[in-house]
């Protein structure tokens, strides 16, 4: 099913993100964790590609296995930073064979210290979006950054390039995580003002590990509000209390988003079925 039929509608959509295994040895254990997340009946599941250290071989098979077994819509990520056109075509062929209908087209993170080169097959995600649209048969989404992408000199410029990406053929966007909903609302206003009309799925990360989030935030440039820093300071040293506080904080964010008319929220629960289940339970009446 094309995701735009889900996320542009009137019913609230709650989806989860998972990552594939790094090698065949842990395929079954990761698949079991992902199937536990899928059994919660989210609106859809997205499967990352090559994020955080090169896990790209199993994205299509994991996404397709979940889709076949649970009859759930899936979104397969695909990045292009180190890719050739032939490699991208091969991934698209594999997705088509396995019946995957939705792709999140990404540039991917640059190798440290490098910048986009003229002779690369792809420099920006917009080129991948255009190529997938030309290939045909996929509903294509893209990433966006409510606080501006780290490489962008200004948010204004980032939004201009985002508009180009949407014009290249994105049917929807998903945001980077944010911890303060006003950041999302302000971004939405500016994106709409720039003529971006596609649905913008709000990305929320339930933080369960204090040192991990400090690392992620340092890399992504995401701001941590003071009230969230107090939570990290007070509960960060104890995994059980941090997990509970992180789930409560994310739930509160999601309730506020739905209350303000946001239709689709994507949860970065990353193969953690316990966290995904708690969030889903906390929203059970709201999602009915
Ligand atoms: P782009 O849209 O190409 O933007 C990258 C930068 O280039 C921005 O600063 C933009 O303003 C600028 N830019 C764009 N076009 C131009 C232009 N014509 N001229 C000059 N500058 C331009 N990474 C993975 O490796 N695997 C994943 O599965 C993954 N999933 C993600 C999911 C989401 C929802 C998000 C938000 C990010 C994800 N990422 C993933 C991370 C992403 O790949 C990185 O953030 C990457 O640095 C940028 O990717 P992009 O697709 O947004 O790039």
Describe the structure.
The chain is 45% helix and 14% strand. The protein has an eight-stranded parallel barrel with strand order 1-2-3-4-5-6-7-8, surrounded by six helices. Helix 2 runs parallel beside helix 11, helix 9 runs antiparallel to helix 10 and helix 10 crosses helix 11. It is globular, with a radius of gyration of 18 Å. The site of flavin-adenine dinucleotide has 23 residues, from strand 3, helix 5 and helix 6. The site of flavin-adenine dinucleotide (FAD) has 23 residues, from strand 3, helix 5 and helix 6.
**CA-based gyration radius:** 18 Å
What is the N-to-C succession of helices and strands? HEHEHEHEHEHEHEHHHEH
The biggest beta sheet is recorded as: 8 strands, parallel, barrel
Number of domains: 1
Q: How does CATH name the architecture? A: Alpha-Beta Barrel
Ligands and ions found = flavin-adenine dinucleotide
Q: What is the rounded distance between the termini?
A: 20 Å
Derived structural class: alpha/beta
Number of strands: 8
What percent of residues adopt helix (DSSP H or I)?
A: 40-55%
Assign the CATH topology: TIM Barrel
Low-confidence stretches: none
Strand content: 5-15%
Can you lay out the helices and strands and say which pair or pack?
Layout lengths: L3 H4 L5 E6 L8 H12 L6 E3 L11 H12 L3 E6 L5 H13 L4 E5 L18 H11 L3 E6 L10 H13 L4 E4 L5 H13 L6 E5 L5 H11 L5 H10 L3 H21 L4 E4 L5 H10 L6
Parallel strand pairs: 1-2, 1-8, 2-3, 3-4, 4-5, 5-6, 6-7, 7-8
Helix pairs in contact: 2-11, 5-6, 9-10, 10-11
Bound molecules: flavin-adenine dinucleotide (FAD).
């Amino acid at each position: 099913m094309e995701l735009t039929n889900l996320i542009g509608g009137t019913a609230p959509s709650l989806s989860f993100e998972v990552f594939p295994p790094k090698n065949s040895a842990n395929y079954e254990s990761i698949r079991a964790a992902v199937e536990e997340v899928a059994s919660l009946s989210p609106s859809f599941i997205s499967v990352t590609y090559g994020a955080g250290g090169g896990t790209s071989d199993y994205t299509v098979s994991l996404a397709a296995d979940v889709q076949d077994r649970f009859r759930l819509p899936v979104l397969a990520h695909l990045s292009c930073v180190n890719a050739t056109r032939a490699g991208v075509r091969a991934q698209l062929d594999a997705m088509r064979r396995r019946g995957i209908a939705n792709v999140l087209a990404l540039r991917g993170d640059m190798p440290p210290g490098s910048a986009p080169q003229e002779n690369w097959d792809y420099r920006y995600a917009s080129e991948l979006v255009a190529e997938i649209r030309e290939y045909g048969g996929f509903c294509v989404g893209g990433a966006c950054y409510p606080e501006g992408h780290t490489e962008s000199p200004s948010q204004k410029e980032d939004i201009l390039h985002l508009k180009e990406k949407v014009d290249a053929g994105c049917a929807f966007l998903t945001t980077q995580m944010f911890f303060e909903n006003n950041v999302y609302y302000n971004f939405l206003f500016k994106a709409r003002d720039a003529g971006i009309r596609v649905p913008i799925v709000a990305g929320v990360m339930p933080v369960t590990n204090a040192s991990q989030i400090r690392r992620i935030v340092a890399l992504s440039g995401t701001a941590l509000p003071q009230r969230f820093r107090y939570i990290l300071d007070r509960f960060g040293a104890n995994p059980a209390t941090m997990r509970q506080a992180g789930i409560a904080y994310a739930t509160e964010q999601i309730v506020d988003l739905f209350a303000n008319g946001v239709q689709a929220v994507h949860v970065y629960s990353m193969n953690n079925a316990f966290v995904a289940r708690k969030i889903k339970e906390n929203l059970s009446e709201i999602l009915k």
